[in-house]
Amino acid sequence: MNAPTVIAPVHKSVRVKAPIAHAFDVFTSGLTRWWPLDHGVGKKPIQKVLMEPRLGGRWLEIAEDGTQTPVATIILWEPPHRLVMVWQINAQWKPDLAMK
Predict the structure, then answer these.
(1) Tens digit of pLDDT for each residue in 5-36?
(2) Fewer CB within 10 Å, N or C, the chain?
(3) How far is residue 73's CA from residue 86's CA, in Å, rounded to a whole number?
(4) How far is CA 9 from CA 6, 62, 82, in A?
(5) Is the whole model's pTM more than 0.85, yes or no?
């Protein structure tokens, strides 16, 4: 029997020279502008990635055939200061919808 592995949360910070509201907007509303489309978990080729900007919203990959793959779910939405997501990706970089 395999016991689940518990790991500490990952915290990452990046400082950018931009007003906080603008940086938050680019990160959340402009995913297609900065996320590399060859780094996905769903069907390929990826047409775009987007974030539904709200509590309970999802980070989605949308393939050229229209298939939508949820990547994360927003569990805290406090623009422009804080955003917390639960990633729905397993250790093999594949979708894992059981991780909610």
Answers:
(1) 888 888 888 888 999 999 999 989 988 888 88
(2) N
(3) 5
(4) 9, 27, 16
(5) no
